Amino acid sequence: MTRTMNFNPGPSSIPLAVLKEAQEEFLDFKGSGMSVLEVSHRSPEYDAVHEETQALLKSLLGVGDDYQVLFLGGGASSQFAMIPMNFLGQGQVADYVNTGTWSNKAIKEANLLGKANVAASTEDGGFTRVPTAEECTFTKGAAYVHITSNNTIKGTQWHQFPEVDAPLIADMSSDILWRKFDASKFAMIYAGAQKNLGPSGVTVIVIRKDFVETAADGIPTMLSYKTHLKKNSLFNTPPCFPIYMVNKTLNWIEGQGGLEVVEANNRKKGDLLYQTIDANPDFFRAPVAKDSRSYMNVVFRLPTEELEAAFVAGGKERKMNGLKGHRSVGGIRFSVYNAIPMEWIEAVTAYMTEFAKANG
Ligand SMILES: *Cc1c(COP(=O)(O)O)cnc(C)c1O
Fold this sequence. Notes:
With 360 residues, this protein is α/β, with parallel strands linked by helices. Helices cover 37% and strands 15% of the residues.
């Protein structure tokens, strides 16, 4: 079997070593004589996975026991509603920075439940950058500030997070653990696992315990962070298998040498892609402002939509999958999360250069 080079935005590539390990253990999980799919979420075998995954995530993020890791279902999208439900009280305002589709969805949910103030938006320029610090007007006494650290569709990313007084919440679905950063600045970080952490099915939440204590009471049990904090994400059956895969992925990150090594690799990958785009300015066009370019989702255009379609088709022949930009924006997008090896980037950039030469 030759492995397809998978550049899909999510679900996305999982390291081959992780898949193989899961395959080896699949029928007999830790000598239990059962598959990991079959064991009880109350069993000691599963419990060890649950606890280790939480510990690994905290250690990679450099946060201590004042934070709790939660594993919930419902995707990152459910967090858009859970956050205001828990933290946006009556008469309060929550600040949102609007940097594209996902931020917009979060704002919409907040407005169903309370009042969301758009503290900054880059919609005017077509979301081709994230705002500068000066452009953000945060509300004094806001319930929280919500940002989207990486904009999966538009290909923009915050390289410096805003300094705020209110509790800072980030949707890091498409760039969690892509590099080292100061996680202690955040009251809450959340991410659907299917981009940078493993398969779909679990949303990973890292939340400060004292922030959870400020959550409202009297909300439905399953939608309350207090429930999941108190029961350590075992109030009901957690998504055991996705959590197990996240565990393997985190161990893989550690095995690579931790976040310093992962970040260095990601920068090499992104730099090579952007250099290839910039080296052919008459053929490739990167719409994103240079200082907002994402290292996880690299988007660009070709001179015509016909050439873009031909580029995608030619990629398929070379076993390069998922090159097409999001249907709302068109163009080309390479999603190059942690699991994507440098060799794939070398292959696609060679293809890009060859394609530009043949068609430019
Ligand atoms: C993919 C994505 C989501 C949606 O995640 P689901 O788990 O499918 O709900 C939310 N935010 C960002 C930034 C994303 O990239």
